[in-house]
# Entry
Amino acid sequence: MLRHHLRRRTLALAAATAAGGLGLTACGPSITSDKDEGGGTDALRAPDTDAPSGEITIWDRSGDLFEVFEGVIDDFNAVYPDIKVNHVAVDIDAKLQNTLITGADVPDGVFLDDAKISGYTDYLWNLGDVLQPYLGDMAQQKIDVNTVDGAIYGVPYDLNPGLLFYNATALEAAGVDASAIETYDDLLEAARRYKEAVPEAGPIHLEQSAFLGQLQLEMYASQLGTSIADADGELRLDSPEYRRILEFLDTVRAEGLGTRAEYLTPTDIAEMDNGNQVFYPWAIWFSFAPQQMLDQTSGDWRAMELPAWDAGGARSGAMGGSSFVLPKDGANADLAWLFYEFLMFDEVGYTAVWGPNPTYPTGLNTSIPAYEPAADPTAPLFEPVEALGGQDLWSVATEAGAQIPGGAPIPAWWDGAVDYLGNDVQRMLDGDMTPEEVIASATEQIQTNLVDRQ
# Structure
C-alpha cells in the first residue's frame, strides 16, 4: 500500500492539462453571483439546513489513500446520517477532463493534484465563502496554490514539506556532525568532509528524472519564496533565486559530491544502502524509502529541516501536494463540501486520516495536514517512525512545514515545462550546460512554446 502511495505522489504531477474554456451551469447548490469574500463569482454556499440530506459521489484514485478516505465515511455519517456517500475509485487523470467538458455524470467532489487546479477553474466552484472560517488557520502556501484570480478552488489536503534525510550512522562513522548543518554551504562542507573519509561516495542526491528534478527544483525555489510563475502566470525563472539554486546543484556536480540517480530506482537504493549516498533533500514522502526499500540501512536514517539558503532563512519548501475540488456541475457539491469539511477540519476526521488506521497501522507518515490546528507539533497524529530510528518525524515535519513561505498557483503548463527546464537541468548535471545557459534556454522555450500559447 505504502509503495503505491509513493508511486502516486511521484507521478501525480506528470499529466497536468489545461481544461477547455466552456463554462458549466450549476445543477444543485446555491451560488452567489456578486463578488464575495472569496474574491470571485460563483461561490459555493454550505447547505442552509441543520439536517442536510442527499447523495454525493466522490472520486478518489484507487490505492492506499482511497482506503484511508473510505474508512472515514462511517465517522462522517455519524454526524450526517442522511448523506449517502458514493465513494468511487477512478483514474482521474484519464477521466476528469472529458467528464467536465461533457457535463455528464459529473462527481460532486474530486481529489486533484495542486498542479492541475489552475487548468480546471472554469469548471470548479469558488470555495472562498465556505473556507473563510478556516483560512486563518491554514498553511499560506496551500491557500496560494489554490487561488486563481482571487478565487479559491481547492480544499487543501496535505502539506509536503521538504526535509533533509541523512544517514546518521554513516555520518557519525565518518566524523561528520549532521547537527552542524544549518545552511546549504554547511551541507556542501559536510559532503566534502564525508567524501574525504569515503572517497568513492557521492554524498548528496542529484535527481536524474527530468520531471522529479524539476519538482525538487521547485522545492528549493519555494524556500526562497518564489516559483516558476507568479500569481498572474508570468514566468520568473530568470531570477537571482534560480541562479543560486542551479549554481548549488552545479557545484555538487562539479566537485563530485553527488550521486546521480532517479528516485528509488535500483541504483539509487544501492547507493544509499552501501553508504555512498548519505544526504537526500526531498519531501517528507521520502520516509517511504527506509520503511520499505532500504534493506541494509533502514534504521540508520534520520530527518531534519532543510538547510537554509541564508542563515536564519526558511528551513523548508513545498514539494508537491493535492487538494479537493468541487465541480460546478456536481448535483450536490454543497453536501460534498460537508464531507471535505469533516475530513480536513474536524478533529475526528483528520485524526482518522493521519492517525493509526487499518491501512497505516502507525499513521500516515508521508505527509502532514495543511490545516494548522491539525498539524500541532506537540500533538502527533502518527507515531514515531521505527525505520528512522524511532524518530519523531511528526514534530520535525510540522515545524518545517510552518516555515514554508507563501506560494503561487501552479501554472497549467507546468508539466510541459519539463521538456525544457527539466531536461536542461539534466544537461547541466551532465556537464553540458551552465546554470546561466539553463535559465536562458528554458526561459525562451517555455515563454515561446507554453506561456505565449495560453
In short: DSSP finds 18 helices and 16 strands in the chain.
